[in-house]
UniProtKB/TrEMBL annotation:
Keywords: Membrane, Transmembrane, Transmembrane helix. This is Glycerophosphoryl diester phosphodiesterase membrane domain-containing protein. The chain crosses the membrane at residues 23-44, 56-80, 101-129, 135-157, 188-207, 213-231.
Amino acid sequence: MNTQNLSSKEIYSFGFKNAKKHFWSFLVLFLVYLVASFIFMPKIKEDETISLFQGILYIIGYIISIYLMMSMYSATLKIVRGYEVKMKDFFTWPKTGLKTLWTCVVSVLVLLPAIFVGGLLFGFLGAFGLMAGNAIAVIIAIIIGLVLLIITVHLAIRVSFSKYYTLDTGSWAIASIKKSFELTKGRVWSLLGLVIIGLLIEILGLIAIFIGLLWAIPTVLIAQVYIYHLLMGGKENQLMEDRSVAPIVPQPSELPARSLANGIVADSVINNPTA
């Protein structure tokens, strides 16, 4: 596929097909998450004070959630790359998990200035306009809010593939964010269209209550990772996770001819394999 023209039909068809193939693995993962949330993160009433024990439970719950999220990202990337993915892969912490988690944090920090400034200006001008009965201030507040919303969405798309790049290559946050900017350069509008389609799929899944989300969430996630895979060139690159375990071995036809250092004897692996 030409990555300059991302096909929404192919991308989400790929996502749906693989979500169907790995339906039971995603289902078990979601059930484990729901059970963990029920046990470790119960709903607390507004007037209820959180005890030390409840706080510890919440911390454990968040750790479990992060573990499951990173494992799901890793398994999804393997699915997209054509690996044979088993149930255990959905519960295996990737070697680049901590770096990926840090990249997620830094990516959110990149968005915070626009969100903070936008919310502050919108709230201040909006409140001032309403209190003073100044329609111009209200209009300015709305315009500023819309502009900063556009900037935030733009930045969110530009950094959206950074976590996958860290997970894939083991790069640190800044390098991964730079790579994400490189991958999304000139493609923001087409990627925004794909994001909107994904949101619509999840809304349809939400309308169908629980069963629909079981299809929608994996479909959209796999589609997102598949987009990353295509933007990276669509190559069957080996994951950073598995390089130390199963290194790529080139085919004999890809091996270069070799010469001895002193140049007296030259042999070709291709033409004379027994040498």
